Hints:
With 329 residues, chain A is an all-alpha fold.
Amino acid sequence: MTLQTSAIEPSVPRALIGVVVDNALVLAxxxxxxxxxxxxxxxxxxxxxxxxxxxxxTLLAIAAIAMTFAVSVGGIDLSVGTAIDFASFAFVSLVLAxxxxxxxxxAGLGAGxxxxxxxxxxISGIGISPFLATLGTLFIGRSIQQLLTNxxxxxxxxxxxxxxxxxxLGRGAIGGIPVPLIIAAIIIVGATVVLTRARFGRVALAIGxxxxxxxxxxxxxxxxVAVAFILAGLIAAVAGLILSATVTVYIPSxxxxxxxxxxxATFIGTTLSRLGRxxxxxxxxxxxxxxxxxxxxxxxxxxxxxxxxxxxxxxFAVLALSFITRRKA
Amino acid sequence: MSAASPDEIGxxxxxDGIVKRFDGALALSRxxxxxxxxxxxxxxxxxxxxxxxxIKLLAGLHQPDEGRIEIDGQAYDKLTPxxxxxxxxxxxxxxxxxxxxxxxxxxxxxxxxxxxxxxxxLDRRLMHRRSSEILDDYFGVKLPNSALIxxxxxxxKQIVQITRALLDQPKVLVFDEPTAALVRREADILFRLIRRxxxxxxxxxxxxxxxxxIEELCDTVTVLRNGEDVATLPLGxxxxxxxxxxxxxxxxxxxxxxxxxxxGKDILTLDRLSAHGKYQDISLTLRRGEVLGLxxxxxxxxxxxxxxxxxxxxxTSGQITIGGKPAxxxxxxxxVDRHLALVPEDRRGNGVALDLSVTENITLSSLKRFxxxxxxxxxxxxxxxxxxxxxxxxxxxxRNALVRTLSGGNQQKVAIAKWLSRHSEIYLLDEPTVGxxxxxxxxxxxxxxxxxxxxxxxxxxxxxxxxxxGITDRILVLFRGSVISEFVSSQTSPDDVLAASTGSSEVLxxxx
Lengths: 329, 512
């Protein structure tokens, strides 16, 4: 009842709170940014900001966008790392075997999409909950990688055998902007458009909010869920390609390093959005937030082992912020 | 005992002048219930008459605002569920109280497990002996104490509930709709048990929609209407039809704006449609411009029939024809493509998405119309939403407001607007005015009339019989899975329809 009246006649303080709620993420970002600029002189330098974007942002942003698609349909994808790894393995192995980089890259994308399709069969076909299905995929994927690499041996590309296109993908730049960052930007824009302006995105969000209504509206909800998980695998595969092109090696199960941060960024973005819906800009800002905190803590000279405490506190702070703003709004 | 005069027997339960309000709404206004010891006392009334509130007061789950509760001649101020059980009053609810993952033994003895003397260990042997004595004596069945509740049939679950009560040697047993999910043979076993318990001196309160059961089983019946007890009668002096008349309010105001539409071509035909264990041999024809009423008690199969038409359940045999083509839908998506629309009873669960906006809800089914090359046409959506908000007079702060912020009646209008946007032609409305205030109800009735006037075929499933008669052209009554009678709405009364849906024998003779 109060909600209804307030929506009709927003008072001035209420409108102010509205601005804060809408921009809670930006506010959090600015705050964290200001703290670190003040705390350490090296934080606010061009070199460091570049380093944040290259080292703390690109790959995680892509992985988190993959996660956001799974979360948008009310699921979660614990196997984003598996898709990253499979893509990376296929890419590196085929380049090592002398295949053209384009062919290897396509195979890598296919491998990631296949991981997503496997999840889709488990979730939409058989009806297993996304959490358990993708957890199963995570375990199976880990074993497959160990079997393929004789117990977890990395697959190196010899320095002489790295094709130019491969190197360009990982370390190249166009007009001074690193190629991985350009790819990430394209994915960010594309995913935002799909989730906010495409019919698929609307249906996906509706499924995430109230799946039974979608079904009762005559929409094939399961097919949309399947597509969301395949998209998640495909997008994660892009991160896998960039990862292996950057370090010119495939290390088994290295993709799992992105899992928890991707979940964190996605839910920070969801929690601090006005409607509490999964959204790409929110996820991206969540990634930036996590990246800045990780980088900033490192620069303050704090013991490396304290870094995860910083991440944990950040998540609590986000929750507290959303709690305060929600309750007043 | 039966030799003693009524005065000497006394009351087991006496609820006197009970008043109970919930959030200001009057649930009970001076309701009384007086149950003599050692009798089977029926309690009947339409949905919302106050039966369940009265029983919850007796169970100690609510406290009365006014009035007096006497048990065995003694007045009690603050009853708690625990105290009530100590007084020997037990409740047999449909599908409640039993944890599916418990074993029969755990369910029977939960909270009062016998111990081996002087030890903290459960006396499993004693538990088994006591439960199998009762199960064998009263029911002639054997249920292993180790069987899981979830493995039992509905009838067996009920046996466990009753056995649990009998282990306590109860003085009063309250049965709340005990036969709703039982087949006839199981119900007969239950009736024999109830008579035997009464002869053993146990007092029984029996709540049921099935008036033929009340007629068959009870010594006395109390009829509730609008929170009051309108009559308490010995069964020898009344009949199911008379009880039905007492249950239905007389003063049906002129709140059903029925417009006369000349029905057009057949739009939906069912031919001997059956679903095993749910309904059998349902045949009906719906025409354009016609509003067809469907009613029946829980277990009548009416709800399942509607769900089958919309592709949520499957029929085992028979034909559905829409516009001359076979149209058994395997999924709601298929049904919607055939221009079927379902406004489900569980509005907040299945009808509208509470955390989507009014616009997003309205266009959810018709998104394809607002898509160009996969992308949404936002301005088209806005126009559609504004148009329907205006036509249906949906009261909202704006098209972007979350549906959660709307009142029940306006949420229901959104649930209907969704199908108008989809250009649906056959509307299945399941309890369309449940939880809707009276003003919005009339608006929804008008809307149904508009739809019919524009050539849609409409099936309304409702247990509000005055409403059903007021807004439909014809009414089909389902009873235990079959169409038991058909009424022309303008030539019938709620009494007749109710009597038919409760399987009352007197009306059956008229019809059949």
